[in-house]
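Lab meeting notes turned into a lecture example. A postdoc, R.K., suggested we walk through two folding results consecutively so the class can see how the record format repeats. The first protein's sequence and structure tokens come next.
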Amino acid sequence: MTSRLFRFPLAPPPGHPFTGPGGPAHRARGEVRLRVWPDGTGALLTRAEGLRLANNEGGFYQTWLVADLRVPRRLDPLDRERLPRADPQANQPGGLFTLDGQPPRVLGPSASERPNTVWLAVRAGAWGTDETGRQPGARWFLNDFSNWTFWLPEGWGGSPPPLVEAAEGLRDPDAAGTHAVRGLPSGLAFEILTDLFIRRGTVLPEGPLEPGPRLLALMAERIAPLDSDGDGLLGYPDVVGRPGLFLSPLTFQRVVVTRELPSAATVPRGYPSTAAVVMAGWRKDGGSGRDGLLPREDGAGETAGEAGKAPDVPGAEAPSPPGEERTPRTEASEGR
């Protein structure tokens, strides 16, 4: 089994609270390396320097893999008619979808330039820095147990998932045999967002038009066939090992790093806040995009298991030698 290696160069985006002069990331630089196996799993290594010290009670940094919603190349005319088109060049097949029909803004530096794209993020490791502001290598494995994204209503103005654990009977949320509330599998969430914003003419055309009620209706329709205990939530036993429910690592075209400040009054964010970003970067694909700032237009929306069908993706290093190479899926299945 062969693997391929991709790089995400990281730098502080201008205009953000943590990236200006005197901020914790003013001189930060870094890189994320993503190794992808044909079975749809991946391994990440985050390296950074020039950050302010963050460790334990002083806070921590969080790496996120981000997948942006794109307009499918093959789209039903009924859906195409309902796409916002304030700019004639916006929301073209294969391009980034925008809510207002304007050119995409993925990291708006101010309230007047808020992001207008639709995306989902997968946690890819929390880490700290030493006294010099360095992180030599924070590792993270991407498989069916970690390739989960946030609870979609929470990210789009709704409420978090209900608490289903009794205080006197809390279970290990990472145990494979429990129905842990971990949000949604990334591939399932990506399809729900596509139905919510793009397939408005063919999916639930007679249903609610407002995003909030429509999202809840779509989630109920998609989750019900997988929900073994009928509580409206999904756990590991419901989805692990099922094809098509998890995004391929190749779908994630950019990375953001946020600074998280722990507090007794807050809980860790389930999705990255624009205001908390300290570094960001697109996947390094040779010759694609505009000056390397925009991602490739192919590969978005692939589900795990399809990664091996694209062996010649630009930006990847030469595959590793063939052999019995261990993958995160192998490690997870063996209980490691």
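The second example is placed directly after the first for contrast:
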Amino acid sequence: MKTLEYLAEVCVRKGDYAVAVQHYLALNDANYEETAEDKQRAAETLLAVAVCYLAMGNEKKAEAYRKEAVEKLTRAGGGLTEKFAKRHQQYDLLANKGKLPYAGAERQARMEERRRLQKAKDLFTEMLAQRGEQAQSLDKEAVRNAISLGDLQMRTGNRDQAFFWYQAAEQAAEGMEYAQACRRLGEWYLTAGEYLKGLQKLTNAKNYIEEYDSVKTKDYCELLAEIGDCYFAMGEKEKAVGMYLPYIRLFRELQLPRGKQYQRRLERTGRLLADSGRHKDAAECFSELALATRMMEGETENFARLLLKTAASHIAQGNQKEANTLLDRALLLGTAKGRETEAYGKLCDRIGRMYAANGSLERAEDCLSIAYEMTRNGKKCLTRDGLAALLSVLRKLGREERYFAVKQGKKLE
């Protein structure tokens, strides 16, 4: 119980109030209130929960827990305890839109946090010793505490200490706590660049969940992605795709929030699919990413870039109409900064070459001609590939005068 209280207080000092609430409630559940002293501790715990909810801005829940705490303390008898009084002062301060007394005293808070973390570690180590060398004898609460301590250490940058707790949890865990501990160790190895070890731990977690638990969860979905990350870092691109695709499908099925990490993996998957010739699947990835980007950012340069990636996948499939629609849109977006800019000229070179590859010769001629003329006027817009594409397009269209003008570096009429 002391370990839970130290964990909760460390979370409060870190500002992780939601996690602190979980620890305080677990502490309260473990208190059977057999004596008046136990009832006083329960009141103190409930008031701590109230303080956390108030710090998170949930005044309704905060007041409900505060009232319950006051009533419990009254029934316990014995008067006001020092800890209860201190926590009520914190509550009153927050209720008056103030800050907790230690907020702003960053150095002191860090020192206190380190002290409490060390105390929690000592208590847990003592628990291990008391229960003997058989780590498997530890209960679920102890394992969850170890994982929580590891998480706290990771957030504060203490990687060695985090490894200690994760390894202790893995050795002691059973059931889903084992899968969770394996995943944490896998993530630790992944961020350390030890990809093979990370892959082994993450795979252990995946296999356990597949055999004993549901695979239709956010945790399992993220696990697939992390295994894909391992394979990608190891250069095993096909195996990475083999993890990313089910990850993406499950992500969509669960309708999870499409954050930056999901978008990075989605684009990576699209690139890997395109490189392996799976252009239809690649187009789906790039298209989804483009739509998400437009919703989050608007029609930005990043959105236009993704339109071009999607268009390239359609060109590779021979979908001329779909590709042209996307290329037209990207070209229009490129005019936002002005048709006379070097950036627009370079875009015309790129899109012109894509039009040419798509068999849209007139569109290609128009774009590449703009890049050509801007290059003649001193702006480096037309690439060697663009020049070759322009000459090829002009020859195919039978534009002999324009063809020879380009060959001689003259102005196009």
